[in-house]
Amino acid sequence: MKGNVIVGQSGGPTAAINSSLAGVYRTAKDRGAKKVYGMLHGIQGLMEEKYIDLSEHITNDLDAELLKRTPAAYLGSCRYKLPEIHENREVYEKIFEILDKLDIEAFIYIGGNDSMDTIKKLSDYAIVMGYPTRFIGCPKTIDNDLALTDHTPGYGSAAKYIGTSVKEIIRDSFCLEYSKGLVTIVEIMGRNAGWLTGAAALAKGEDCAGPDLIYLPELTFDLDNFMERIRELLAKKPSVVVAVSEGIHLEDGRYVCELGANVDFVDAFGHKQLTGTAAYLAHYVANEIGCKTRAIELSTLQRSASHCASRVDILEASQVGGAAVKAADEGDNGKMVVLKRISDDPYQCSTEVKDVHKIANDEKLVPREWVNAEGTYVTDEFIAYIKPLIQGDVSPVMVDGIPRHLYKPSH
């Protein structure tokens, strides 16, 4: 590489997002990049000329290893939607003026669907205007809903945490007995895709029966049918554990969480804040049956639990970061790195690049055939798909009994 590289992080963070950042940094330096800049708070920060020289913060191999074990977006994230080029050309002129000043050869953006929209628009503008900077997307999302890639970095660690947490919740739910039983509702992220919620089935094994019911957002949620199944289960056992997606919805399209409270917050990409699904269902069950209920919302713990990260996930995250730099160095533009599964046993996966125009603003959903006929559990095919992604552990660097992270720069 003859010029410089700039990298940013966007959208919701993961336990593996900083491993991708480390992969970008190491590969860029190995390929001769003069400087590797980090945008503070993604494209939004870049437009305010907020960036750092990463070599001043990652000074040795220990820093790089700590970075890979540090949750949240080290550089800071954003949810900023670039306007269409014809709507606001000045935004693009400003961005490219900054990139030109920094002599940026490669622009790497680590993110999900909305971040790939940014890569698409910037690469299109660069091509039309004849700018030499190349734009490559590096996949990241716990939701696992990016098109054309087998899976996304961040998903394996989140799935591992969910499977572990649900198993522990199930164990806890049998500690006490209540006269009318106990129903525990666990709310899991994922919006319109059920990849994360399906991971609750990982709790099932020789020492655990797993959750009793799993509801994914790909299928319409029937409240009456749900209640019928809860009653049937309580007639047979003292404790019932149900995993539900935050995005389950009724036949009329309303999210279940909207039944209990108004959802006012909407981000720059038009996404409603989904929260309160478990709380609503637990309250509903308690009123209908009179049993003890608990609502557990895993919330941001799913994406920040680096102490429970998957080794496969961390390694692949670093791998796609390096592959993004390699793709840009070899002339690719307007592409995203994808993971291509070669085999399950032994598990093998490689990287390649795909046109970002076929990925941005699309959602990969759980196939219908990977959910049982009743819509209340995932199939063995789903489990076979997910199990290789949660293998191995990444030991935190412990200091005084608590994990040490790489201290993020001042934002």
Question: What would you say this structure looks like, in words?
Answer:
By secondary structure, the protein is an alpha/beta fold. It has two domains: 4-142 and 306-361 and 397-403, Rossmann fold; 155-304, Rossmann fold (3-Layer(aba) Sandwich). Helix content is 34%, strand content 18%. It is built from 13 helices and 13 strands. The protein has helices at residues 17-30, 42-46, 61-68, 89-101, 113-129, 155-173, 195-198, 223-234, 257-260, 277-289, 301-304, 311-329, 380-386, and strands spanning 4-9, 36-39, 51-53, 104-111, 134-139, 182-188, 213-215, 239-245, 292-297, 335-344, 347-355, 398-399, 402-403. The strands form three sheets. The protein has a seven-stranded mixed sheet, sandwiched between helices. A four-stranded parallel sheet has the order 7-8-6-9, sandwiched between helices. Strand 4 (104-111), helix 5 (113-129) and strand 5 (134-139) form a beta-alpha-beta unit. The chain is elongated and about 70 Å long. It starts with a strand and ends in an 8-residue tail after the last strand. Its EC number is 2.7.1.90. Residues 5-327 form the Phosphofructokinase domain. This is Pyrophosphate--fructose 6-phosphate 1-phosphotransferase. It comes from Sellimonas intestinalis. Its cofactor is Mg(2+).
